[in-house]
């Protein structure tokens, strides 16, 4: 299995507090939010987030063209920043990267962002580019699995993984309903990059032990996008927390058992937070063996739900604390799909 040489993160310039988000929602609605809805949205576990644009931008009519321009401008800038920082932390030059994998479900470009990065950042012209669309919130864990597999090819390769989401571009106040208000209260923008290597590296570098995923039949309507008139329209089921208890928990149990691990053998897991209720369901699953998932809560509080990059933000925080037990990665995304992985923080077990 491959080494995880580095992780780096980047967020846009526009910071907004949750209280300011509720003010924007009321302004868009033209009236104060109903007390019960304001309470639900205010108790999301989020204090602040970062957005691609100033808040007033999201109250204006927009087109596919306008959203694509923002994705190009802001997304490219974030991808370059995170990728450059990840390479610097790994001590590797762009020229030694064999493939660039981009995970993104909130926008797309042709030529892709990885293709444009080659000349702009000094990658070798032979660098393989692999843009992946559609993984949604499960994207980082599934992307790490793909990067791990690619790192094993050709006798060992260096892979740059970039996970980029501008979720705010999906907000559409021409369809101002409860679903869009919940999306506005939860989702945010951000980017993370990681360098994964199948070549020799530092003996104490984190390494991957195993991955797995499962897509449940009859669940395609739980999460995803529909193509709207002005952009992507969110599809989001209400019962994801109960899904964690009913369906995700036994799948995770079986995955850990196959690796000869119990929950008590783990360091704090790196989980995609989803929202406050999803975090509570995950904490209930890990209890009492693990006391909680504070790093997941902290990332949700400070950054909101950035979709695919969020798990990498959490994992970056956990690795900075120097854990000595395996770290479980978990994420739920469109399909409806669970993605799992295990990182050994001090090299191969």
UniProtKB/TrEMBL annotation:
Keywords annotated in UniProt: Transferase
InterPro entries: Chalcone/stilbene_synt_C (IPR012328), Chalcone/stilbene_synt_N (IPR001099), Polyketide_synthase_type-III (IPR011141), Thiolase-like (IPR016039)
Family annotation (CDD domains): CHS_like
Stretches assigned to the Chalcone/stilbene synthase C-terminal domain: 213-319
Coiled-coil region: none
Residues covered by the Chalcone/stilbene synthase N-terminal domain: 2-197
Record bears the keyword Transferase: yes
Domain of life the protein comes from: Bacteria
Family statement: Belongs to the thiolase-like superfamily. Chalcone/stilbene synthases family.
Entry protein name: Type III polyketide synthase
Protein's organism: Parasphingorhabdus flavimaris
